[in-house]
Amino acid sequence: MDTFFTSDTEQTRKLGEMLAKELCGGPARNASLASASSRSDAGGEVICLTGELGSGKTTFAQGVLRGLGVKGPWTSPTFLVVKHYKKEIPNPKSQIPNKSKISKSKIQNIYHIDCYRVKAQDILDLGWKEIIAGKNNIVIVEWAKRIRKIIPEKSIWVSFEHVNKNKRKIFIGNEVIGSGTGH
Ligand SMILES: Nc1ncnc2c1ncn2[C@@H]1O[C@H](COP(=O)(O)OP(=O)(O)OP(=O)(O)O)[C@@H](O)[C@H]1O
Ligand SMILES: [Mg+2]
């Protein structure tokens, strides 16, 4: 578990972008992000975002999307519940072999889910089990504690706290911070 402080929106996006880059392999720029993102082979990667209203979850998710090479605009999925971004699979002949944990070309689906208005059963009904089982999927979940009982054990947890108007304290690790299902 490691702690970061950001003092504006762009810094929070950058942190999300760094996590995405760790997920795609690339040089380890930050040991904590690298260890939080060391994935299991069981399925896709689940990035759980928790924290009160306006604490920066969507902003961070936008950074992750940017880092994964998804073109904007990245609007919040609050009213849609789930936004699905499909990546084009590049021609394999044009790929330079690399030792990435997940080769960039392998990430085919990125799901950005907002659980603010829904319950675990609603997310299960969306095909959650298939989504998280896909090895080439990355799932970003806002208000993840609300569906904690269906989050896979080996997930990345990112928790946001307001310090003041523009400053945020952000914890990244493999465990959920705090109890309850509030955020
Ligand atoms: N350091 C910072 N990091 C992230 N956002 C910041 C920061 N400083 C100010 N902000 C502002 O705080 C707000 C964060 O909004 P954002 O939608 O990312 O939060 P959220 O946690 O997704 O909220 P919600 O719970 O409504 O989904 C934005 O208006 C953003 O500009
Ligand atoms: Mg949000």
Describe the SSE topology.
Layout: E1 2-6, H1 9-23, H2 31-36, E2 45-51, H3 57-67, E3 82-86, E4 109-114, H4 120-125, H5 128-133, E5 137-142, E6 156-162, E7 168-173
Magnesium ion is lined by residues 57-58, 76, 142.
Feature tags:
183 residues, alpha/beta, Rossmann fold, seven-stranded mixed sheet, globular, binds adenosine-5'-triphosphate, binds magnesium ion
In words, what does this structure look like?
The chain is an alpha/beta fold. It has a single domain (2-90, 102-173), classed as Rossmann fold (3-Layer(aba) Sandwich), CATH 3.40.50.300. 24% of the residues lie in helices and 23% in strands. It has 5 helices and 7 strands. It has helices at 9-23, 31-36, 57-67, 120-125, 128-133; strands at residues 2-6, 45-51, 82-86, 109-114, 137-142, 156-162, 168-173. Strand 6 (156-162) and strand 7 (168-173) form a beta hairpin. It is globular, with a radius of gyration of 15 Å. Residues 94-101 have low confidence and may be disordered. Bound molecules: adenosine-5'-triphosphate (ATP) and magnesium ion. Residues 6-9, 11-12, 51, 53-59, 142, 166, 168 line the site of adenosine-5'-triphosphate.
What is this structure, in a nutshell?
The longest helix has 15 residues, at 9-23. The protein has helices at residues 9-23, 31-36, 57-67, 120-125, 128-133; strands spanning 2-6, 45-51, 82-86, 109-114, 137-142, 156-162, 168-173.
User: For the terminal residues, how far apart are their CA atoms?
Assistant: 19 Å
Count of domains = 1
Per the CATH scheme, the topology name is: Rossmann fold
Series of secondary-structure elements, N-terminal to C-terminal: EHHEHEEHHEEE
CATH superfamily: P-loop containing nucleotide triphosphate hydrolases
Q: What is the C-alpha radius of gyration, as a whole number of Å?
A: 15 Å
Q: What's the overall average pLDDT, rounded?
A: 84
Going by CATH, the architecture would be: 3-Layer(aba) Sandwich
Strand content: 15-25%
Provide the helix percentage.
Answer: 10-25%
Instruction: Name the bound molecules.
Output: adenosine-5'-triphosphate, magnesium ion
Number of helices: 5
In the predicted model, the low-confidence regions spanning at least 5 consecutive residues are 94-101
Main β-sheet, spatial strand arrangement: 1-7-6-2-5-4-3
By helix and strand content, what is the structural category?
alpha/beta
**Count of strand segments:** 7
Shape annotation = globular
The description of the largest β-sheet is: 7 strands, mixed
Q: What's the CATH first level?
A: Alpha Beta
